[in-house]
């Protein structure tokens, strides 16, 4: 690998050296964009301190990130490795939230900056869309070299690098030097009939011809140094700025057509490279990648940087399932984005504000805030809910002037009170607070106001989910047996593990029925689907089996009668079921199977097998069905394992292999039944996140200890 030069110590500061090292990394790797993050010493947050090749405004969603954020640089630091994303498709697959805010074609590398004693942070480099999807070995070596340069700067400095509120913009030519310019090129451009503009990577006009000024209907002096979408009202729309953003990030040509009032259509063709963007302006509708309606025909919108920050926040909040998830996402992602430290989330409940989540507040403060009436004047919450308008307090003096008691409730120094309303109906209040005084800029107030609307929608969804989840769990628990019955001579254990679904409710069921002093029935079944309907049908099936079994029906009759019941109910859901009749007086078992996975039987230590039985049709398939009966010995000390298919159907693994592994585990393990049941689940799902419901029912004959057991 070629040696990488250390940046010269211009100015003698560590910040200057870091900026030059970042510019050098961008220049020497052929990247188009570079971002340098440092870890804040006081909290696990990444701060963007310097960037190259991208306007600062574009980085608003990523200027402060939790170390746990689902973004490449956080993964690179957490896993201490290079993270490579070869294109837009891969970004959408691995980092969908980041991809929602970066819908452009590019390649990306993120790598940690780990010194002798600590990890300082990380670097993100981005390449144009034409970069190969795979990173070359030589490029990896270059990136390691640039990481080492940054480490030497940080390890060897006696001063701490600064953590600015706004990242420093580093010119790409800080290392390479500015490109030479000449009057001949300007004269050439002036002779052309179409207009020509030059934009820097910040989007500012650095050069334009007289033809361009004439087409744009502005004096050149009023355009130089400005951004087109800010200087020209008819281009003041995020849709136009986004065309520029696309060119900057992807480094691909972009064109669009826009209407200059009253009736002049202009076509803009943008040609980007590492130093800026050349723009060709022609009159009339030439072939363009997009034709947008005039700005006057569209509603005014927020600045693009603010808009993309809101997209980022909306994508983040869309991941919230329940209230607990929502509070965690706001605390981990929204608070760092605004530099805040405290969060109180309350919901309207019976005329009061019930606190449902907090971060950065001790319990005794929350106790004083919990349950305040909706019209309270102790804090600004009542005022913002009544008016539907957020309130911002930059310091304690501002708060004390209007709500003196609020300053005595906590030691916070600045607050943003956001009303949470849906269609004019108050659903709660979100308080974001700071440990130090904080002046809220106009942009920040606008984004926080919009955040309140996003949180309101997410809170409404989360509370509905939690209510449905509680109802579903109560229904599931009511339909399943609370505890297996005590049967002399038998040890029984059961486990039910819901799948990873929103409601965590399904149709798996089990039962153990004591038929007489020496006879027991063990049942396990699975109603297809994961819904309230599946759980309700499961309850009906379980009741029917219980009724037929206790009336003296044989295993085949129990399933046949239950099948006719399902046919009469005309349910669209099918049910698999395994019914086992245990005769302890004669050490025998008989079973009937309605399309269910077969049980496992251990008859002695080291000896366990699949108890194959000819299956009948699923319950609910037709009114007339026969269910063959299979008999087998069940001697003292034997162990029977019944389960549902969620235990053995692991994605990418043959169920026969999974079943064989479970049989070996059952044969070789003499754990108590509760621990054995847990072990069987872990054998198939070591991470504990099954894709289908799992039910395990274990029945061991303990009338006599197994030989050698």
In total, how many domains does the architecture comprise?
4
Supply the number of helical segments.
21
Overall structural class, as computed from helix and strand content, comes to: alpha+beta
Strand content: 25-35%
Number of strands: 29
CATH top level label of the largest domain: Alpha Beta
> What is the averaged pLDDT score?
83
* CATH fold annotation of the largest domain: Phosphatase 2c, domain 1
Radius of gyration: 34 Å
Low-pLDDT runs? 177-181, 291-304
Large-scale geometry:
elongated
What does the largest sheet look like?
Answer: 7 strands, mixed
- Distance, first to last CA: 64 Å
Oligomer: single chain
The CATH architecture of the largest domain can be given as: 4-Layer Sandwich
| Corresponding CATH superfamily of the largest domain | PPM-type phosphatase domain
Helix content percent band: 25-40%
How does this structure look, described?
With 709 residues, the chain is an alpha+beta fold. It folds into 4 domains: 10-176, Beta-Lactamase (2-Layer Sandwich), CATH 3.30.450.40; 189-304, 2-Layer Sandwich (Beta-Lactamase), CATH 3.30.450.20; 319-469, GAF domain (Beta-Lactamase), CATH 3.30.450.40; 480-701, PPM-type phosphatase domain (Phosphatase 2c, domain 1, 4-Layer Sandwich). 35% of the residues lie in helices and 26% in strands. The protein is built from 21 helices and 29 strands. Strands 1, 2, 3, 4, 5, 6 and 7 form a 7-stranded mixed sheet that branches. Strands 9-8-12-11-10-13 form a 6-stranded mixed sheet. Helix 13 runs antiparallel to helix 17 (442-479) and helix 20 runs antiparallel to helix 21. The two termini are 64 Å apart. The model is unreliable at 177-181 and 291-304 (pLDDT under 50).
């Amino acid at each position: 690998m070629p040696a990488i030069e250390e940046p010269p110590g211009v100015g003698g500061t560590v910040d200057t050296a870091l900026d030059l090292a970042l510019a050098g990394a961008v220049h020497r790797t052929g990247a188009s964009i570079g971002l340098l993050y440092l870890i804040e010493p006081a909290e696990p947050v990444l701060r963007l301190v310097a960037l190259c090749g991208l306007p600062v405004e574009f980085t608003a969603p990523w200027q402060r990130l939790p170390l746990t954020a689902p973004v490449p640089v956080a993964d690179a630091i957490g896993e201490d490795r290079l993270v490579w994303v070869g294109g837009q498709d891969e970004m959408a697959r691995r980092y969908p939230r980041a991809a929602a805010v970066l819908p452009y074609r590019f390649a990306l590398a993120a790598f940690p900056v780990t010194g002798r004693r600590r990890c300082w942070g990380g670097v993100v480099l981005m390449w144009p869309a034409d970069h190969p999807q795979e990173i070359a070995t030589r490029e990896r070596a270059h990136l390691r070299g640039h990481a080492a340069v940054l480490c030497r700067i940080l390890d060897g400095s006696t001063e701490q690098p600064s953590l600015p509120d706004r990242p420093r913009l580093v010119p790409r030519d800080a290392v390479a030097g500015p490109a030479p310019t000449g009057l001949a090129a300007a004269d050439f451009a002036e002779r052309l009939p179409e207009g020509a503009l030059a934009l820097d990577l910040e989007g500012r006009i650095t050069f334009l011809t007289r033809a361009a000024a004439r087409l744009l209907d502005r004096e050149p002096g009023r355009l130089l140094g400005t951004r087109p979408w800010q200087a020209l009202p008819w281009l003041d729309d995020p849709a136009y700025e986004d065309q520029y953003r696309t060119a900057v990030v992807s480094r691909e040509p972009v064109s669009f057509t826009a209407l200059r009032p009253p009736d002049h259509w202009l076509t803009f063709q943008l040609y980007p490279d590492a130093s800026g963007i050349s723009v060709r302006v022609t009159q009339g509708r030439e072939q363009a990648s997009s034709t947008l309606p005039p700005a006057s025909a569209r509603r005014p919108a927020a600045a693009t940087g603010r808009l993309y920050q809101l997209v980022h926040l909306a994508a983040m909040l869309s991941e919230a399932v329940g209230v607990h998830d929502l509070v965690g996402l706001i605390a981990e992602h929204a608070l760092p984005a605004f530099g805040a430290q405290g969060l109180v989330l309350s919901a309207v409940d019976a005329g009061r504000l019930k606190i449902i989540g907090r971060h950065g507040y001790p319990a005794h403060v929350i106790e004083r805030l919990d349950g305040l009436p909706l019209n309270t004047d102790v804090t600004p919450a009542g005022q913002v809910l009544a008016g539907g308008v957020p309130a911002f307090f930059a310091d304690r003096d501002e708060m004390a002037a209007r709500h003196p008691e609020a300053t005595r409730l906590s030691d916070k120094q600045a607050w943003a009170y956001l009303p949470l309303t849906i269609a004019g109906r108050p659903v709660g209040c979100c308080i974001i607070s700071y440990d130090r005084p904080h002046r809220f800029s106009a942009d920040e107030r606008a984004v926080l106001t919009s955040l309140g609307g996003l949180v309101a929608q997410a809170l409404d969804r989360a509370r509905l989910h939690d209510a449905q989840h509680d109802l579903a769990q109560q229904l599931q628990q009511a339909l399943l047996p609370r505890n297996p019955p005590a049967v002399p001579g038998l040890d029984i254990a059961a486990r039910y593990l819901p799948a990873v679904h929103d409601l965590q409710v399904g149709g798996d069921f089990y039962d153990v029925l004591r038929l007489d002093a020496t006879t027991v029935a063990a049942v396990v079944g699975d109603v297809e689907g994961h819904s309230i309907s599946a759980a309700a049908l499961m309850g009906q099936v379980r009741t029917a089996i219980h009724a037929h079994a206790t009336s003296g029906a044989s295993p085949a009759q129990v399933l046949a009668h239950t099948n006719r019941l399902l046919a009469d109910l005309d349910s669209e859901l099918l049910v698999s079921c395994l019914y086992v009749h245990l005769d302890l007086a004669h050490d025998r078992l008989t079973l009937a199977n309605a399309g269910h996975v077969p049980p496992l039987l251990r008859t002695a230590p080291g000896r366990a097998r699949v108890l194959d039985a000819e299956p009948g049709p699923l319950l609910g398939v037709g009114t007339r069905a026969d269910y063959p009966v299979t008999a087998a010995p069940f001697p003292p000390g034997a162990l029977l394992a019944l389960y549902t298919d969620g235990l053995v159907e692991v994605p990418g693994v043959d169920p026969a292999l999974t079943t064989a592994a479970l049989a070996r585990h059952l044969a070789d393990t003499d754990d108590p039944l509760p621990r054995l049941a847990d072990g069987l689940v872990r054998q198939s799902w070591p991470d504990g996140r099954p894709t289908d419901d799992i039910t395990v029912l274990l029945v061991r004959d303990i009338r006599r200890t197994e030989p050698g057991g």
